[in-house]
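Appendix B. Worked example

We walk through a single record from start to finish. Start with the input: the chain for CDGSH iron-sulfur domain-containing protein, Salininema proteolyticum, length 107.
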Amino acid sequence: MVDYEAGHCPSGRLVSWEPETKAPVKPDLPASIGVVEDPVEGCSGPLWVRGAIPVRSADGQEYELRRRVTLCRCGASRNKPFCDGTHAAIGFQDGTDLDHPPRHAGH
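Next comes the structure step. The output line below is what the pipeline stores for this chain.
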């Protein structure tokens, strides 16, 4: 259960460790990018980058390669480009109504 919870933490802040090797358990996630929505908090969350996709700053600095990170989407993180959870405190909304998704033209 602990390995599962830690392995599914979007930001990678939760880590479980192999008891014998003392090495972190790293989930094998396919390369993908998703949008996190938080219905419990009623707000829109970060981008979830999975599968060791490189992240670079605007000036070309490459950040440590991780199997999962969350990137700020609200613009208010004090740890940009990474999410620090501020989206929940400010009630960030991306304009998408999850209960009524936008209809495509012609439908």
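Two observations about the output. DSSP finds two helices and three strands in the chain. The longest helix spans residues 2-7.
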